[in-house]
Amino acid sequence: MQFFIDTGEIDEIRQWAGSGLLDGVTTNPSLVKKSGRDMLELIAEICSVTDTPVSAEVAALDHETMLKEAAVLADIAPNIVIKLPTTLDGLKTCNSLSQQNIKTNLTLCFSVNQALLAAKAGATYISPFVGRLDDINLDGMDLIRDIRIVFNNYNMRAKILAASIRSVNHVSESALAGADVATIPTSTFEKLVAHPLTDKGLDAFVKDWASTGQTILKG
After folding, report:
1. CATH fold of 2-194
2. What is the rounded CA–CA span in Å between residue 33 and residue 138?
3. I need a surface site. Which of 20, 67, 164, 165 has the fewest CB within 10 A?
């Protein structure tokens, strides 16, 4: 499974890009607002930090304006992925962009039917929002599993991108459910490697090694 980071903070992206663990970046209007940056300048800077896929979202709701905004965003860098809402106009725009070999990410997906239509429209990524389904007492992972079954049944090439990740459990559960990608907030990304038994074991090793008086690096 690939790991994308869900943020508009350039320092966070630079940190994770340097780790060798980052496979992509997703942004949205709310993250842009939080950053306090001009959107086009921010997206351009993100693309200067990483050559992995960077999802940049249109602001329009109608097909014609979405196409115009997509052209502006796609012109920023070759690794731009145009993020579109999973609406009828978004699907029409996705179809048009896919015919131009422009990658797309269909966001705010909450049903198998939406995912099917997005895949049919040629979406590169489809983003089911697992956390928001959990918020209304539905199991977001059920949606990931159902989409995976349907995509496998029909050999659909669109990638399932688990979004609205709220915890480390969401990440592991998404992997088990068959998601191709998880886009993860920085705070959750940092917790993925943590485990109390790792810390406890490492502490014991450090103390035992110190007691030997040895060194690996000589001179």
Report:
1. TIM Barrel (3.20.20)
2. 29
3. 20
